[in-house]
Amino acid sequence: MRITAEHMPLPGGPAPGGGLGTMDERYEARLHSEPAALAPLWHRLQREGACTAYQRFEWIGSLVRILADKHGARPLLIEVRRGGHPVMILPLVFLRRQGHRVIEALDLGACEYAAPVLAPGFDPSPEEAERIWRAVRAILPAADLIRFDRMPARVQGVANPLALLAGTRRLDLTASGFVLEGDPQTLLKRVCTPSLYKDLSRRNRRFDSLPGARFVATAATAEMDALFEVMIAQRRARFHELGRHEPLDRPGFVDFYRAAALAAPGGPVWMFGLWADGEWLAASYGLVHGGTFHGVLLTMAGDKWRSLAPGLLIAARIMVWAREQKLDYFDFTIGRQAYKRGFNPIDQTLFERAEPVTLRGRIALGLIRANASAKRRLERHPALFERARAGIRLLRRLRAEKS
Fold first, then answer.
1. Which of these CATH numbers, 3.30.1330.30, 3.40.630.30, 3.30.420.10, 3.40.50.300, describes 181-327?
2. pLDDT tens, residue by residue, 350-381
């Protein structure tokens, strides 16, 4: 399926920027329902232009193939052209949620950031972003709410057109990370707090003394498949122990992460493991794109290994590995886990743009924002937050015992 719409700027409007020469100012939006329809273009733009790892063709393709039907999602893959030349791919999705219809970034719970895939040299101004949006808006299906959240301001140094739109607001939610630079062998000493570096050095010496101790980093299919099973087993054991709901138990999510890892040998997915004394102590799953490492999943063995803090050890070794690969940024993504503070990360602001179209959409947006605000307030009071989480875990454990 393909639907097209065109938008011509008003006479006397600003000339387009973007470094794409003297192209016609006209923007045209085309709607596709399958990633395969855009495959050659998508691969070229992600290779030569700008995108995050979460909008790579391999990631989005696996997401659509495995999760879309299970979650009642209708992909809306928008190709934007200017003067007949492709400048952007915008992956969106149509969903029905709790009595309202919503269009949002193609995420389905598996993407940390909302952003388009941009052509090389295309760096739109706010005025251009509005013209692009009007062309896109013209081909979207009817909905109660159009909402993009967790938008970074820039994508590989280029302005994110979604974040330039009028009505965009800062979220009370941040991602964090730090720049990777210099000698890999001295990286941890430079980025860690003194106390964490001392603690890591002690734990690393203990790990290295174990029989067969080794750190594994792989993008090879067979090795990733084996490590993936280890990671899932460790994660489920840990969540069961804590009495917490396991997000990967949602329909299709384990299959999605496995398929995304195996979809393109050599990247963007990499898997990591710590092995010693005949067993895996920790496993991790991450994405590499555009000089950045994104942490996605991390698990560890419990029981006798807990005092070694294998999760912390594998995270530190991945950082050193990333610098050895000449990556220049380590992205912790979203979340305020306590261990991150020891690496002195810098917060990155994220943005939201919401467009309620109907009364239902306005009500839905109000509820979404109220829930998010309540969660942020709890997180600012750790003791209260932990009591609330403990209560939820107790209720889940009681329900599980009754069933």
1. 3.40.630.30
2. 999 999 999 999 999 999 989 887 877 776 66
